Amino acid sequence: MDGGKVYASDYETDKLYVADVYTLNGKCVRSDERKGHATLFTEVQNLGPGDITGGTVTVAIPVDGPNQKLNKITWTDGARIETDQWGQKAAVYKMKKMKPGEKESLRMDAEGTFYRISTKIFPHEVGSLSEIQAEITKTYLQDGDKYQVKSEYIQNKVKTIVGHEKNPYFIARKLFDFLTGRINYQMVGGWDIAPTVIERGTGSCSEYTFAYIALCRAAGIPARYVGSMVVRGEASSVDTAYHRWAEIYLPKIGWFPVDVNAGDRDWQGDRCFWFGGIENRFLITTRGGGDSTLLKWGYNHEIEYQTLGKANIRNERFAEWDVVE
User: Fold this and answer.
1) Which of 97, 135, 215, 242 could join 175 via S-S bond, C-beta 3.0 to 4.6 A?
2) How much is the pTM?
3) pLDDT tens digits for 263-309?
4) Mind giving me the DSSP string for 130-152?
5) Is the pLDDT of residue 19 over 80?
6) Of 315, 244, 254, which Cα lies nearest the Cα of 283?
7) Which of 3.30.70.20, 2.60.40.420, 3.10.620.30, 1.10.10.60 is the CATH number of 122-288?
8) In what order do the strands lie in the sheet with 282-288?
9) Is 254 helix (H, G, I), strand (E, B) or coil?
10) What is the distance between the alpha carbons of residues 59 and 300, in angstroms, rounded to a whole number?
11) Please, are residues 223 and 246 in contact by the beta-carbon 8 Å criterion?
12) What are phi and psi of 77, to 5 degrees?
């Protein structure tokens, strides 16, 4: 390597190849193309004995991104389209009145091409935190009740982990490495706040994400989350758990994914991939910075309802994947 170029000789062809590696800095590289069709189902049924008197069902609307190119998106008629404070669009349905035994079913379909992506970063080419645009820092350094950025616990953790490091890339990596060594995956229902998750040492994908966002924001690195539907095993599959991870903003690079939960692996190569990369089995539906005016702290969809008298409500929510020929 000389002057930012890599030289490689091929002894079989007697040719010399030259790659200008620094031109890749900040580039998102796509590979492993996969075509698919995903359907997000949402059903609400009143099991009684009281009545459902109203409410809303909100379904996130996905858009194109580095990992996905969508050819067709449809959703059940009757929605009004709204946008939350993070720029997330959603189809919002007014729930009808339902007597015991009645139900309402909605769906959102998306067809497209999905990619494995990897972001190439040379740490010494990353800018300083002071170079980040004011609007991004204003929006994505905010506190939130799941983050507790200003808490003494989070502030002290960041000081201990980061130390005297100034490079935003290495700050983000230190926080990533700390959480992969601290938290073990466990999904038991509910989303605890970041200090509780870190102190406890276990969490779901959402809790890994909230903890990482909290640490990043406390360190001055803008962070947000994405939510998705996931291909589970076979190309045709059903997803009932979904998945969430973080995106962070590095100066001179931009937004890129960091999945602390998926990166919690024994092999260093796996850990490195999930710092800037994701696989080709995700349909991202949601991007948010915190508590949403439409989706609350959830993603994919959100349900709210009112009842007259006591009523047991069944919420059926899942995604179904099919192969596109």
Assistant:
1) 215
2) 0.94
3) 999 888 889 999 999 999 999 999 999 999 999 999 999 999 999 99
4) GGS-HHHHHHHT---TTT-TTSH
5) yes
6) 244
7) 3.10.620.30
8) 254-258, 243-250, 223-230, 282-288
9) strand
10) 6
11) yes
12) -60, 155
